[in-house]
Specification:
Blueprint (H helix, E strand, L loop, with lengths): L6 H4 L11 H29 L5 H28 L2 E3 L2 E2 L7 H4 L28 H20 L8 H23 L4 H5 L7 H19 L4 H5 L6 H20 L7 H29 L4 H15 L8 H11 L2 H12 L1 H5 L6 H19 L2 H7 L14 H31 L8 H6 L1 H5 L46
Antiparallel strand pairs: 1-2
Subcellular location: Cell membrane
Keywords: Ammonia transport, Membrane, Transmembrane, Transmembrane helix, Transport
Family: Belongs to the ammonia transporter channel (TC 1.A.11.2) family.
Length: 491
């Protein structure tokens, strides 16, 4: 005798169509929120605390502005440029994603069905069991974090007005091309290039575009380049923690379902990150004699980036291998090659995004071409018979596909970022004027991250309200007139 299903799983309503899977929809919205938290407040906090004190507000604001601006551009035209009907093999037809008819229908990727010349289906369309609104928001969080990661290369000197113009232009004319080509039904998608959750679309793109932008914007002041200590290491760790934990949504949401591949991806993500952090820290101890908190965060980051293109496609022992390499190869590129390369020395990449994202993202994409496990590939990939080179068969061809895709992403981001910045430079200087560079946040925003008593100001009981509050009758003012330490907020 068959047990009837509970009413919650059988009752349909206008808001619960037959194709809707509540579990998949709940997970996709949760994953999107986790990725959003990586940016806001994760990277906002990380950027504000990892930079020199005088640039804390400006760095946080660049991330905050990018998050908001990307969302509006995304729903107005960006989503369908990246995931809509094909315009050309590397770009979709831009259109708004705001109408209820579009947003409440069942999601599908890609929107266009593609066929070979002989009429055979080129690759199957993916149709998740939730509405298009969930997919639009999920993919927005990826676009936003790409933009914010790019900002890490130009912190501490880019003209904020130029940044405000750059964000929508780069999103629409650079990011959407990579996203459509690899994810949205473009030529690399149908060719079978593997980019599980953004090793190329997000990390290689942001690293290369950030390095290119740093070249055109120009360097920080000499004294800022020579001494740029974080203003709050503990707060930096809080931002890094949000980034790490949010990565479960980053890679766990990529299958577009709460399925077994999502579980594999989340586990592998954390294994690789932990391994990479330990390797980077060990190298710091061996070569510099002490562990570095900033180094540990960099190692965490490279591990998370490296596993991203293959998180749900490699076995967990392979995630350890990828962690060993992501904790060492980017370490060598940052600590050794950077000091020996004239180009790397010339370009002022503030947070080393080239090393932590471009190098690590490229490494992850190539390792996925070697280590992608055939059974796991069959669970999720649209192109059949996909495997890494170490598993024989057509794996060698897969590795070559990964190389070609990386070269395309690198070339496109160099060209598009250069053109966008040169166009902006015709109307707005890319670099702040010298007087703003000398002062920092107060000159750019009229605000400072920390306003401390004692910074040239004597404690005045009348000014701070001791004579006007009943609280003054209970607690006397501090006797340390010139040495008070606390935080004041001017409303």
């Amino acid at each position: 005798m068959t047990t009837p299903l509970p009413e919650a799983y059988t009752k349909l309503s206008p808001a619960v169509p037959q194709w809707l899977n509540k579990g998949d929809n709940a997970w996709q919205l949760t994953a999107a929120t986790l990725v959003g938290i990586q940016s806001m407040p994760g990277l906002v906090i990380l950027y504000a605390s990892i930079v020199k004190k005088k640039w804390a507000v400006n760095s946080a604001f660049m991330a905050l502005y990018a998050f908001a601006a990307v969302l509006i551009c995304w729903v107005l035209v960006g989503y369908r440029m990246a995931f809509g009907d094909q315009l050309i093999p590397m770009w979709g037809k831009g259109a708004p994603s705001l109408g209820q008819k579009f947003l409440i229908r069942r999601a599908k990727v890609p929107e266009s069905t593609h066929y070979h010349d002989d009429g055979r289906l080129e690759s199957e369309m993916v149709e998740p069991f939730y509405p298009m609104a969930s997919l639009v928001y999920f993919q927005f969080t990826f676009a936003a974090i790409t933009m914010i990661l790019l900002a890490g290369s130009v912190l501490g000197r880019m003209n904020i007005k130029a940044w405000m113009a750059f964000v929508p232009l780069w999103l629409l004319f650079s990011y959407t091309v990579g996203a459509f080509s690899l994810w949205g039904g473009g030529f690399l998608y149908h060719w079978g290039v593997i980019d599980y959750s953004g090793g190329y679309v997000i990390h290689l793109s942001s690293g290369i575009a950030g390095f290119t932008a740093a070249y055109w914007v120009g360097p920080r002041l000499k004294n800022d380049r020579e001494r740029f200590p974080p203003n709050n290491v503990l707060l930096m760790l809080a931002g890094a923690g949000l980034l790490w934990m949010g990565w479960s949504g980053f890679n766990g949401g990529a299958p577009y379902a709460a399925n077994i591949d999502a579980s594999i991806a989340v586990l592998n993500t954390n294994i690789c990150a932990a391994t990479s952090l330990l390797v980077w820290t060990s190298l710091d101890v061996v070569f510099f004699g002490k562990p570095s908190v900033i180094g540990a965060v960099q190692g965490m980051m490279t591990g998370l980036v490296c596993i991203t293109p293959g998180a749900g496609l490699v076995q967990s022992w392979a995630a350890i291998v990828m962690g060993l390499l992501s904790g060492s190869i980017p370490w060598v590129s940052m600590m050794v090659l950077h000091k020996k390369s004239t180009l790397l020395q010339k370009v002022d990449d503030t947070l080393g995004v080239f090393h932590t994202h471009a190098v690590a993202g490229l490494l992850g994409g190539l390792l996925t071409g070697l280590l992608a496990e055939p059974a796991l590939c069959r669970l999720i990939l649209p192109v059949g018979n996909t495997r890494g080179a170490f598993y024989g068969g057509n794996g060698g061809i897969q590795f070559l596909k990964q190389v070609v895709a990386a070269l395309f992403v690198i070339g496109w981001n160099i060209v598009s970022t250069t053109i966008i910045l040169l166009a902006i430079r015709l109307f707005i200087p890319l670099r702040m004027p010298e007087d703003q560079l000398l002062i920092g946040d107060d000159a750019v925003h009229g605000e400072e991250a920390y306003a401390l008593w004692g910074d040239g100001e004597k404690y005045d009981p009348t000014k701070h309200g001791w004579n006007n509050s009943s609280y003054a009758e209970e607690i006397a003012p501090s006797p340390y007139i010139n040495g008070a330490r606390g935080v004041t907020i001017n409303l």
